Amino acid sequence: MDELELGLKRLIVVALNLEDLTPDEIGSDEPLFGSEGLGLDSIDALELGVALRKTYGIKIESVTDEIREHFYSVRSLARFIAAQRAE
User: Fold this and answer.
1) Which end of the chain is more exposed for a tag (fewer CB within 10 A), N or C?
2) How many domains does the chain fold into?
3) How far apart are CA 18 and CA 32, in angstroms?
4) Strand partners, 40
5) Which residues contact 44 (CB under 8 A, 6 or more apart)?
6) Over its length of 87 residues, how does the chain's per-residue pLDDT go in tens digits?
7) What is the CATH number of the domain that holds 69?
8) pTM of the predicted protein model
């Protein structure tokens, strides 16, 4: 498993207090939001966004369709963070 993806899974579990879940139980391509996958909601999205800013220093100016796509799964978030770091 990619180090960044594993770090994101750990961050999700800790930042969102998902005590019944381990990072290994989160699939990299599993949807994070909605009725499928983890089932996170809009409050979770805000908390996750704050944790990502603090941990990885990424900037999210506003929530757009593109940002929603980046937040689809752990893998898409990892690609987004890697791209932000490269800039």
Assistant:
1) C
2) 1
3) 13
4) 33
5) 16, 33
6) 599 999 999 999 999 999 899 999 999 999 999 888 899 998 999 999 999 999 999 888 877 888 889 999 999 999 999 998 877
7) 1.10.1200.10
8) 0.90
